Amino acid sequence: MPEIKVVPLGAGQDVGRSCILVSIGGKNVMLDCGMHMGYSDDRRFPDFSYIGGGGPLTDYLDCVIISHFHLDHCGSLPHMSEIVGYDGPIYMTYPTKAIAPVLLEDYRKVQTEFRGDTNFFTSQHIKQCMKKVIGVNLHETVDVDEELSIRAFYAGHVLGAAMFEVRVGSESILYTGDFNMTPDRHLGAAHVQPDLCPDLLISESTYATTIRDSKRARERDFLKKVHDCIDGGGKVLIPVFALGRAQELCILLESYWERMDLTAPVYFSQGLAEKANQYYRLFINWTNEKIKRTFVQRNMFDFKHIKPFDMTYADMPGPMVLFSTPGMLHGGQSLRVFKRWCSNEKNMIIMPGYCVAGTVGHKVINGARSVEIDGRPVEVNLRVEYMSFSAHADAKGIMQLIRDVRPRHVMFVHGEDAKMEFLKEKVEKEFNLPVFKPANGETVVVPTRLDVRLDVPVSIIEHSLSLDPSPSKRSCPFRAAVRMDRAAGGDLEVISSQTAADLLGLPLHTITFSQTVTLPKIDWKQLTRALRTLDGDLQKKEDGLEMFAGEVTIMRIKEASDELELVWDEGREEWVDLILERITNASNSP
Amino acid sequence: MHNSGFSIGSANWTIQTDYEKVAYLSATSSRTSHTKAVDWEKLKGADVLVLTSVSVAPERNPEESVHMLCVTVVETLKRGGNVLIPIAPTGVLYDLLECLAANLDQSTVSVDTPIYFLSPVAESALAYANIYAEWLSEKKQNRVYVPEEPFPHSIMLKSGRLKSFTTMHSNFSREFRTPCVVFTGHPSLRFGDAVHFMELWGGDQKNAVLLTDPDYSMMEVLAPFQPLAMRAYNFPIDTRLDFGQINATIMRELAPKRVLLPEQLTKPPATAPTRTDFVVQHSNQTPFRVGDTLSVASSASRKRVRLDPEIAKGMDVSARGALAEAGMCSLRGLLSAYDNILELKSDSVDKENDRSPAVRSRLGGQLVGAALIEALAKIGVRAEPVPAADQSVALVRVPDWSAIVAILDEGKRSKITCESKANRRRLADVISTCLTPL
Predict the structure, then answer these.
(1) What positions belong to coiled-coil segments (chain B) (predicted)?
(2) Nearest to A450 among B309, B326, B360 (CB)
């Protein structure tokens, strides 16, 4: 039996460093190439030496697919393509292709300038890497080679996020990347062609156990907390990624400031933000319907209340709100501002998204009252709020997706082991599907259906279809023979039974059945009319009627005037009841 | 769906089955413009190619027209005249704005010379062009990665060189300065703001009107405004494929087996009846007229059927009997054509539920009465030959099942007469044991 092999190099029972190897129909595909932000040693990158036994990647991999621009999905790409070495095609959507290099460059700066990492990819590497990238549009089937094709579907989550279907012949997988099943202020909900029926669905499961409360309530909660804090004269720090949730929260805060007529300043990290908004303008097609409809008159991303931030503002007295990058407090401006604000209990930090284990953000969320920054312990006195705004599907959303696409197998990645176990049991119970949740490096083998196709002459098919009287044509008796000519290269050829008999030098034997029908009177005209509805090509003969090219005959019996003989080929058995019914009805009607 | 390179979002289409391919070649352009390059690959080798849209200004080269247009605009402005370009609000306009700006920069015309674009959809038309990067040429596409807007018209808008208005009755009257260039509709000069500008500028020979739409003839368009002092030029810009491109390269490269095309494309155009090169040349072409229904016979004699893995596994094509060279085995089952997906299922599934009868292979060989009686005796069923009136018929009576089997046509046909359906089947089963299944 054919099979699909899947090995997660990252994101197996873990969040971060997404990288999944798939072998399907003799093709090898890498899904995502992320990095782990909790580590700064070798563990931050997937173990590329595992691939193809350490040989050149270009020879082994047929293509690399990047689902969206978050670093835990594309952060290792320049490392893989330029330092390890890969020259094959890399696919991502147009917005991802535009935004990923910006984030990579940002990440590189943090690593090399703040951390002093020297063994790292360079700007030049990023540029060279992006040259290998091919842009993909939604729903466009891209033929990677003769057999392998990929197709992108809208995934919500962030601008340009996509799910990818990978197909080789009849085998296919659907990789969700990160996705979101509920539309929000600036993005739509994930949308996959229903009934895709992939052999394997590889789904993220970040929020596998949470069924999140209503979004409205969460947003009200967020606004209330921010408002209370600035009323008390505190400063609010919201660490975000420059693109993604940041825009969602900015739209939310902007409209709240407008409505409540607030004057406290709201800032956004400079540089990246303006560039980010420019991207949103150019890829407005990837946002939701409302923004698309109004973008000519009014751009949602031109904020009135939100201004660019300068580091000198950090020590200004009075309340303020700051959206600062990066999102997990793992370096850069966020960490510097945090260091200055964290000792004052009037201040507040709101973590709007997931933090990878090992980052300062993760420690703070878990209630650490003292964290180590730049090698020195810092006291944490400010209020810490963790509110999940990151746009991942919750358990309900994942179940919904499974219901929509009807996969044959399910595999969970990008989540925590215990939470996955819960969802796994749920899916197994509700859908009765086999579910996998491999750890990193663990191979999952998914059997697929054997796909054999034969070219059958149309005449044989037509005859077979005509043998089944039911209009659905679901079970039509089919009889033929297959011939393999060794001289002609062993190709299989479908031939009719007649041809097969001729080849064997035998005559074809036909078994027929016969039945006598007694009727009150025989009206041939009426009979002909009634039976013509079953066979338009019905033939009138001297002594009766011939249907289906002689496969059913109705003959008068010489001596009797009220009896008919019905003779039919074995294959026409299914039609007999119908024919008998017509005959009886025809002779009973006036 | 495959990029056709004519405008943003324009596409050629193919409809493909396992054996046949129909390609629809609509308005297509292989010239350099703002659009993504045309994708020919998938249109190759079609059984039927439907060709509908060909340049209607085959005698004019569009690149030359654009060049002449820019030169004329510069000349007119230098003369102190105004330029009116009646045009549709999308498509060629984007390229014209870009070319014109470049040409004006190189000339001595003041950079303050305003370019107005008047259309109820002006703002949207300009904005939308910038958000479909995936439909734009590679050069334009690469700009969004910077990120910059793909078209320079947004910079022209920001700098105030290009101004867009919904109509001339809006703020336009306050901003209006001459000399200037005005892009507005409608190209037919029968409605829209273009009509007002014709009235306004028609009397002065310093001004110029530049017609670019190939669908309208200059004579007819200008007729109601005669006598016209204003200079009028015709620079038709039709980027669609012309006959030269179609006959010289496209037909050879796409190599369709058959071409369906409108009748007009099979004879020279009325405007140039002597140009016999202005026809589509293909050895197998079928012209059609509006409203015609064309039937194209299917050339496929086979269809692809998916086999149930059970059947595929059970196939044993080893050599048999006289056929040492070629193996053969029977292929039987239940064919499903539901949803037009052909699938051969194993009949064993239905046997368990007893819904559908097992499908028996066809049988080969001649049936002999004695063999049948012997086979029946083996399973303990009594049978006897009955003398028949007709010499060519052998009759066997099976009293246990109250049935009579007539063996006809030298044993190539057997007729079972029996009232019970179950007994009929049983008898047929016994007959099959006497013969060779195919």
Answers:
(1) none
(2) B309
User: Does residue B295 form part of some domain?
Assistant: no
Instruction: Report the distance separating Cα B154 and Cα B166, nearest Å.
Output: 17
- A window 119-178, beta carbon within 8 A of B: 130, 135, 137, 140
Q: Residue A276 in contact with residue A106, Cβ under 8 Å?
A: no
Residue B298 in any domain: the answer is: no
Q: What are all long-range contacts of A182-185, with beta carbons under 8 Å and residues at least 24 apart?
A: A182/A156, A182/A215, A182/A397, A183/A156, A183/A288, A184/A156, A184/A215, A184/A248, A184/A288, A184/A391, A185/A248, A185/A251, A185/A252, A185/A288
Supply the CATH number for residue B24's domain: 3.60.15.10
Interaxial angle between packed helices B369-378 and B421-434, expressed in degrees from 0 to 180 and rounded to the nearest 10: 110
Q: Are residues B229 and B256 in the same domain?
A: no
Cα–Cα distance for residue pair B74/B233, rounded to 1 Å: 14
Adjacent-strand bridge partners of B210: B233
CA dihedral for A316, A319, A325, A330, sign (positive or negative)? positive
Residue pointed to by tokens 């079970």 = A475
Structurally, chain B folds into a number of domains equal to: 4
- The residue from B193, B210, B234 where one domain ends is B234
- Is the model's pLDDT at A540 over the cut of 90? no
Mean pLDDT, range A203-221, rounded to an integer: 79
Domain membership flag for residue B125: yes
B76 & B95 share domain: yes
Say if residue A331's pLDDT is above 80: no
Higher pLDDT, B24 or A280: B24
Q: A278: which chain B residues are within 8 Å (Cβ-Cβ)? A: 147
Is 80 exceeded by the pLDDT of residue A113? no
Q: Are residues B223 and B74 in the same domain?
A: yes
| DSSP codes of every residue in A283-317 | TGGGS-HHHHHHTTT--TT--SSEEEE-GGGGG-S
Answer yes or no: do B307 and B266 share one domain. Answer: no
Q: Mean of the pLDDT values across residues A242-246? A: 75
Q: Please state, in angstroms and rounded to a whole number, the distance separating the CA atoms of residues A89 and B119.
A: 43
- For the segment A126-148, what is each residue's pLDDT rounded down to a tens digit? 999 999 999 999 998 999 998 99
Domain contains B296: no
* Mean of pLDDT values over B165-189: 91
Q: Give the model confidence (pLDDT) of B8-47 as tens digits.
A: 989 999 998 888 899 999 999 888 888 988 989 889 989 9
Q: Are A209 and A417 in contact (CB under 8 A)?
A: no
Residues B87 and B177 in one domain: yes
B372-385 pLDDT tens trace: 888 888 888 888 88
| Domain co-membership, B138 together with B184 | yes
pTM, two decimal places: 0.81
Query: pLDDT higher for A488 or A131?
Result: A131
d(CA B336, CA B344): 6
Most confident of A105-119, A457-471, B262-276: A457-471
Domain CATH for B420? 3.30.310
User: For residue A580, which residues of chain B lie inside 8 Å, CB to CB?
Assistant: none
Mean pLDDT for A334-359 is: 85
Question: Taking CB atoms and an 8 Å limit, are A282 and B149 in contact across chains?
Answer: yes
A370 near A51, Cβ under 8 Å?
A: no
Shortest CA distance to A416 belongs to which of A208, A242, A135? Answer: A208
Q: Is pLDDT of A68 > 90?
A: yes
Find, in chain B, the residue whose alpha carbon is nearest to that of A98.
B145
CATH code, B75: 3.40.50.10890
Cβ distance A478 to B132 less than 8 Å, yes or no, reads no
Arithmetic mean of pLDDT over chain A: 86
Q: Could you tell me the residue range of the domain that residue B165 belongs to?
A: 62-234
Domain shared by B427 and B331, yes or no:
no
Q: Is the peptide bond before A308 cis (omega within 30 degrees of 0)?
A: no
Q: How far apart are CA A221 and CA A478, in angstroms?
A: 66
Whether A511 and chain B come into contact, CB under 8 Å, resolves to yes
